Amino acid sequence: MQPIRVLIADDHQHAREGIREILKSDPFFEVVAEAWNGYEAFTYTGKFMPDLILMDINMPDMSGHEATRLIKNEYPYVKIIMVTISDDIADLFEAIKKGAQGYLLKNLSPDVWIEYLRAVSIDEAPLSKELAVHMLREFSTRMPMPGHSPLTSREQEILKQVAKGKTNREISKDLVISENTVKNHLKHIMKKLHLENRVQLTRYACDQGWVK
Question: Which long-range contacts (CB under 8 A, 24 or more apart) does 151-157 make?
Fold first, then answer.
């Protein structure tokens, strides 16, 4: 398997060096470029074609949020994880709205980083219960309109499991199907709903009233 190609975007050199050292500990990842602002991150994405971008939020000239929006519009298949010292839930929601796949705090241990980034890279990053609670509070103010879903009963069942924060492996055990079958179902679900990640799937499940 080819290593996951990573672009690091952070305006602080020491932060970039720290992230690079964490990733060097795992051959699963390969750092292909480093950017110091959002505009450079956008430019380097087209030049180096990374699989994954670790994006700081607050950078000069162009913020991480704006860079994420531009990159996802141009290269929707590139995964983006916001990396920051802020645990403000508003920052997290803004990142998700711009298309980011996840959110990492800089003060977390390297082991947590590696475990989480591996999970995101293979589309198995579970949604934490804490984030799920915040999402329910955020979206409950939007008066969701439940309606007819294009999903089959099996797809709805899998989506409900995703919304509970379960990994593909846990879902396969609960529903007594293979992990590969779970992955295939999720691909079909995201294609039907025009969604890109597990956070967006969870929001859909909340809007449908499938998650309490």
Answer: 151/189, 151/192, 151/193, 154/185, 155/185, 155/188, 155/189, 155/192, 156/210
CATH topology of domain 130-207: Arc Repressor Mutant, subunit A (1.10.10)
Domain spans, the chain: 4-122, 130-207
Distance CA 126, CA 192 (A): 21
| CA separation for the pair 169, 62 (Å, rounded) | 39
From CA 62, how far away is CA 9, in angstroms rounded?
11
Reading the chain (212 residues) residue by residue, the pLDDT tens digits are 789 999 999 999 999 999 999 999 999 999 999 999 999 999 999 999 999 999 999 898 899 999 999 999 999 999 999 888 866 667 777 777 788 888 888 887 888 888 888 888 887 655 554 554 554 454 444 433 445 568 888 888 999 898 888 889 999 999 999 999 999 999 888 888 878 788 788 878 877 777 76
Specify whether domain 4-122 bears CATH 3.40.50.2300.
yes
**Separation between Cα atoms, residue 9 and residue 37, nearest integer Å:** 6
Q: Do you know the residue count of the chain?
A: 212
What is the reported pTM?
Answer: 0.62
Task: Please report, to the nearest 10 degrees, the dihedral formed by the alpha carbons of residues 185, 154, 80, 42 taken in order.
Answer: 70
Token couple for 199? 């956070």
